[in-house]
């Protein structure tokens, strides 16, 4: 019984740190802090927060976002004082430091990008916990949606980590890669080649920066620090509307992936064209240099999406049928493990559907 109690508390403290580094909303941070303290934000929890969240950059090579950290410290102090608790001196000192060093000038005004750390808690599945730093948009300004971490990319990442054998030693091509999260996870499960792509040049530049943050240099050979193995990771500009079939046929991926790519009816025909080219590209002539296993393994696509507009999704199904693509809903049959249990305010797994696509030509 005692062991179970400490296991629970240990997990809650892990959740608190991971949620802070992912810049979860303050209400989630306070809720986790209270769970760690048995119903209130205890002094022990405050010391943990100071050492392992606010000061984690000293030990682990990164620092929390200044403005976000300041706001969370204020919320924690308010939560403690409202419960007539004792605020440790370190928190007051930290807030005083933030307030005195914060200047209302151009260095803090108008910022649009922050670095969030998405931590996958995989201890129970025989893997080491790992964190992925990603520069992303702080808001949802029009034109910056490609730099937001969308729920479907989190779901697809959990799916990849749950079923690594599907992707290991496979050439994987992601369309509409956004911040590049899925590509980093594909590298983690030892895909033989990873190609991430986007049609927006600004998003593509941000994605390249994120690959560099994760030591996966775009367009060059990347070295996996943990396994010391070379993995090819590439960024490609893929404007769905204009890219030619010849340009796409240069790539012959085993697996195509997409997260939240079914969102605009005007883009659906172009999306289906891309999927059709990739899923039907193999013939006996194309496979002369492939081994026997690959020759008879047709390419497959995995698309994760939140169905925000039923009409748009039905439009996608209609075009897929006309292109002779089979779509199978595998959300329930291939449920991913929950590697992001601390993400409550930004990630509702129940809203995401996962589809497997094959060509039946």
From TrEMBL:
Entry keyword annotation includes Transferase: yes
UniProt record, GO biological process: methylation
Cross-referenced Gene3D superfamilies: Vaccinia Virus protein VP39
Domain of life of the organism encoding this protein: Eukaryota
GO MF annotation: an example: protein methyltransferase activity
Keywords associated with the record: Methyltransferase, Transferase
Entry keyword Methyltransferase: yes
PANTHER family hit by this protein: HEPATOCELLULAR CARCINOMA-ASSOCIATED ANTIGEN, PROTEIN-LYSINE N-METHYLTRANSFERASE EEF2KMT
Designated name of the protein: S-adenosyl-L-methionine-dependent methyltransferases superfamilyprotein
């Amino acid at each position: 019984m005692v062991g179970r109690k400490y296991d629970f508390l240990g997990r809650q403290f892990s959740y608190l740190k991971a949620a802070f580094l992912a810049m979860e909303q303050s209400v989630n941070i306070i809720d986790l802090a209270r769970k760690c303290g048995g119903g209130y934000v205890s002094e022990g929890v405050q010391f943990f927060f100071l050492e392992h969240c606010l000061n984690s950059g000293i030990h682990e090579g990164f620092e929390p976002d200044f403005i976000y950290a300041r706001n969370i410290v204020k919320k924690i102090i308010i939560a403690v004082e409202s419960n007539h608790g004792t605020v440790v001196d370190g928190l007051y000192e930290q807030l005083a430091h933030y307030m005195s060093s914060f200047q209302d000038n151009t260095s803090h005004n108008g910022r649009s990008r922050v670095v969030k750390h998405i931590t996958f808690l995989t201890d129970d599945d025989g893997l080491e916990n790992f964190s992925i730093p990603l520069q992303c948009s702080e808001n949802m300004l029009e034109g910056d949606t490609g730099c937001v971490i969308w729920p479907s990319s989190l779901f697809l990442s959990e799916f990849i980590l749950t079923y690594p054998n599907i992707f290991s030693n496979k050439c994987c091509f992601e369309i509409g890669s956004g911040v590049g999260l899925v590509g980093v996870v594909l590298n983690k499960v030892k895909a033989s080649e990873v190609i991430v792509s986007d049609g927006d040049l600004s998003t593509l530049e941000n994605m390249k920066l994120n690959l560099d943050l994760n030591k996966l240099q775009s367009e060059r050979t990347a070295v996996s620090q943990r396994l010391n193995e070379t993995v090819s990771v590439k960024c490609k500009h893929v404007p769905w509307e204009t890219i030619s079939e010849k340009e796409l046929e240069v790539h012959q991926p085993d697996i195509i992936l997409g997260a939240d790519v079914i969102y605009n009816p005007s883009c659906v025909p172009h999306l289906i064209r891309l999927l059709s080219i990739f899923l039907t590209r193999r013939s006996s002539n194309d496979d002369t240099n492939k081994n026997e296993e690959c020759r008879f393994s047709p390419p497959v696509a995995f698309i994760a999406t939140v169905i925000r507009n039923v009409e748009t999704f039905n439009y996608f199904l209609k075009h897929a049928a006309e292109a002779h693509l089979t779509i199978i809903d595998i959300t329930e049959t291939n449920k991913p493990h929950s590697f992001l249990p601390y993400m409550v305010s930004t990630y509702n797994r129940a809203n995401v559907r996962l589809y497997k696509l094959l060509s039946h030509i």
